[in-house]
Amino acid sequence: LVLRDKLIAYETSPDFEKNLNDLALKMLSSDWKEIINSVGVLSFPKKVVRDAGKTTDNKQFITNVVNKATDIDEIQCFLDMDVEGYILGVAWLLVIGYKIDGEIYEHSYGNRMRKNVINDSGEATYSPYLFEPYFQQYESWRDTAINYAQKSLNKNQDVVVLMLDFKRFFYQVDISEDELKKYVSEIVLNSDVHLAFNYEFISSQLTNFVWKVIEKYSEKIRSKHPDLVGK
């Protein structure tokens, strides 16, 4: 909702077209300073503490009636920055991100890009959805596992269904700038995409920007919520 509010203000500005043209020039000249300085952290409750120290479950409901102070057990953080930063982020996804996604293990379901975002000619299809809905991916994975387990049970075979979760995974991801840029360079080098612009240069520029955002955001989280991230 915070981002949607920013998007409305940005799109309804009388200088909308000029701002987009200026953003393109910023991208070409690596003029990110203003956008990077806008990077912040939005923190929202993920779990709250009930009586006797028990966290909420699915029976808990949301209300605007407050009887006493609420203790937060876990929080969820989100990136906050100027709208122009998100536009560059989407551009990175459409230029290089979808190529990275194409190399990820087929049965990895978290934050996967939609397969129809880029067509066979390497052009954006202007789909309003960049990512596959995670809950649908999760349900597919869960139901497939249960179906296999049921087949074994039908044969009177013992079966164990084990579910594991990486706690706070995205707060703990460890990648260096050199690793990211080397990986992107290899993808660009082996890419068969033929675009009207300099693919190698644009990929490099956008990757530099994305790294700057990751770096600044990580710094902000470490300062605001040091318990969430590793060393």
Task: Explain briefly what this protein structure is.
This protein has 231 residues and is mainly alpha-helical.
Task: Report on this structure.
Helix content is 48%, strand content 9%. The protein is globular and about 65 Å long. The chain contains 8 helices and 2 strands; from the N terminus they run H-H-H-E-E-H-H-H-H-H. The longest helix has 26 residues, at 199-224. The protein has a two-stranded antiparallel ribbon with strand order 1-2. The protein is mainly alpha-helical and 231 residues long. It has helices at residues 2-11, 16-29, 33-37, 83-101, 134-154, 169-172, 177-189, 199-224; strands at residues 40-49, 71-80.
Number of H- or I-type helical stretches: 8
Helix content: 40-55%
Q: How many β-strand stretches?
A: 2
Average pLDDT for all residues: 86
What is the end-to-end distance? 31 Å
- Secondary structure class reads mainly alpha
Q: Which H/E pattern describes the elements?
A: HHHEEHHHHH
Strand content: 5-15%
Weakly predicted, low-confidence segments: none
What are the key terms here?
231 residues; two-stranded antiparallel ribbon; 8 helices; 48% helix
Strand and helix layout:
Elements: H1 2-11, H2 16-29, H3 33-37, E1 40-49, E2 71-80, H4 83-101, H5 134-154, H6 169-172, H7 177-189, H8 199-224
Antiparallel strand pairs: 1-2
Helix pairs in contact: 4-8, 7-8
